[in-house]
């Protein structure tokens, strides 16, 4: 499912226009992104939670040349699925 298919599904389920569903989805994604950017955590009970984790700098290898390269430290987003979501998949 891509973004436009998700918007269509939200609009059909909620009985709202596609424009309203698009606005709601973009608001949700924007709020999740801004919360994570501030270092916060977003939790939806039963669905899952997003958090930010720091990944330390490390050495890596270029697979073509075999040379050692430096991989910079960065923040990464992690998602942990909730019990209801895991149950729905299994």
From TrEMBL:
Q: Which GO terms describe its biological process?
A: chromosome condensation
Give any Gene Ontology cellular component: cytosol
Signal peptide start-end: none
Q: Which CDD domains match?
A: HU
What the entry lists under Gene3D superfamilies is as follows: IHF-like DNA-binding proteins
User: In its keyword annotation, does this UniProt entry include Thylakoid?
Assistant: no
One GO MF term, please? DNA binding
Q: Which family does it belong to?
A: Belongs to the bacterial histone-like protein family.
User: What is the protein named?
Assistant: DNA-binding protein
Q: Which UniProt keywords apply?
A: DNA condensation, DNA-binding
């Amino acid at each position: 499912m891509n973004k436009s298919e998700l918007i269509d599904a939200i609009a059909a389920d909620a009985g709202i226009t596609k424009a309203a569903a698009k606005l709601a989805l973009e608001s949700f994604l924007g709020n999740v992104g801004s919360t994570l950017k501030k270092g916060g955590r977003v939790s939806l009970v039963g669905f899952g939670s997003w958090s930010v984790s720091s990944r330390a700098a490390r050495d890596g290898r270029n697979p073509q040349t075999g040379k050692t390269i430096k991989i910079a430290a960065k923040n990464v987003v992690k998602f942990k699925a909730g019990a209801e979501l895991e149950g729905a998949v299994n």
